[in-house]
Amino acid sequence: MITPEWLAGFFDGEGCLTIARSRGTHFTPQAVLTNTDLRVLKLIQEAFGGTLHARGNPKRWNEAYTLVFSGTPETRRFLEIIRPFLVLKKDEVEFFLAAWTNEVNGKQARRVTPDVLEARERIKQELSAMKLRNNISQNIN
Length: 141
What we know:
The chain is built from six helices and four strands; from the N terminus they run αββαββαααα. It is globular, with a radius of gyration of 16 Å. Helices cover 52% and strands 20% of the residues. Strand 1 (15-22) and strand 2 form a beta hairpin. It starts with a helix and ends with a helix. The protein has helices at residues 4-14, 38-48, 72-82, 90-99, 102-105, 114-140; strands spanning 15-22, 26-35, 51-54, 65-70. The chain has a four-stranded antiparallel beta sheet with strand order 1-2-4-3.
């Protein structure tokens, strides 16, 4: 049985929180888990949802799979479940949950005010900077 505690540890090691941008104003939050063992991702999907994808199979690596929690409601629900148990990615998740408010997310409409667009981009950039800082500090220790 997959527990939220176990899943938080798995996400700390194998997960990624990102905000994908497309069509200029469309920002999609995503929590992504990647692994070569499809069985573990299917167990997580059965318990918590998400969408499974197969990744390409370069000849020198094993087949890899991703489980994606995409869009604001699905991503937020997933992160709230694992949030209390995170260690390495706790600051990224807490930043995202605090910053990605209804005012910033709004509707994914074609017409978005410049202020909302700027706020979305700022959150995306800060999240990327946090990841970089976390990766550098892990390599130093």
